Amino acid sequence: MNSESTSLLLNIEDATVRRGGRNILDHVNLRIKEGVNTAIVGPNGSGKTTLIKLISRQHYALARPNDAPTVTIFGKDRWDVFELRKMMGIVSSDLHHDFVASGRITGLDVALSGFFASHGLSRNHDVTSDMRRRAEEALDLMEASHLAAKHMDEMSTGEARRILIARALVPNPRALLLDEPTTGLDIVARQRFLQTLRSIAQHGTTIILITHHVEEILPEISEVVLMSQGKIAAQGAKELMLTGDRLTEVMGAGISVRKNGQFYAADVENGIV
Q: β-strand 271-272 against 263-268: which pairing, if any?
């Protein structure tokens, strides 16, 4: 294995995912280096969530000639999915819904489940005192200690997101994969959430943020991937990707881009993208 491959967090080569007789991802090629915080941006229906499910082994790509690997993560193309999910924490609306649907579970137990990459705790899970301490520390980091005894189905969306990030952080992952993580958050909760993500990025965890909201792209994110119609339209430095011409092309509408402090904002006729 060469030095370049070992520095890659993610390497996708010629990946095609078919659903319902059509290509949801169409011959996608993507490389993300470990330590390079990256945003994947595109309109609804561009294939962003399918890409996340491909990375997390919920979806699989069509076979390539000679069984060449399609997805390589941290230099490996074969993973025990539970071990992978400990190394790459995932936060998404789907995960939130899964925990709410799985029955009444407290914030602390959700955080503890991150050690086992499970959707809850069972009698087979041996929770040590060290695990409990680390889960409590993760809740504290997320300013969610007061939610330890609260059940997920009683939490606001913002509260649940903080619990899910704590869960993702307890095994000390090398990366966080965040699929539209601010969906359902009000303006205040979203701002607090983004500030928390900034702190996590500053402490060395690689962030991969999937969004269609340009204003959510953190200052700590240096690379942007643009998606459109199941393809990678462009990838490069943030300042080269977040331009009116680039976003107009992928979003299918006339867009202008402006800096808003350390963040970007995109204006269209009817408001913010």
A: antiparallel
* Assigned domain for 109 exists: yes
Q: Please state, in angstroms and rounded to a whole number, the distance separating the CA atoms of residues 5 and 10.
A: 9
Task: Provide the token pair at 63.
Answer: 């076979």
Per the document, the length of the chain is 273
Q: Are 142 and 196 in contact (CB under 8 A)?
A: yes
Host domain of residue 170 = 3-241
Side by side, the strands of the sheet bearing 88-92 are 88-92, 175-179, 206-211, 38-41, 223-228, 231-237
Question: Which CATH number do you get for residue 139?
Answer: 3.40.50.300
More confident: 108 or 118: 108
Give the 3-state secondary structure of residue 272.
strand
* pLDDT at position 26 over 90: yes
The total of structural domains in the chain comes to 1
Q: How confident is the model at residue 270 (pLDDT cuts 50, 70, 90)?
A: low
With 50 as the cut, is the pLDDT of residue 243 above it?
yes
Does some domain include residue 33?
A: yes
- Residue 257 lies inside a defined structural domain of this protein: no
pLDDT at 182: 84
pLDDT band at 269 (very low <50, low <70, confident <90, very high): low
Is residue 169 one of the residues assigned to a domain?
yes
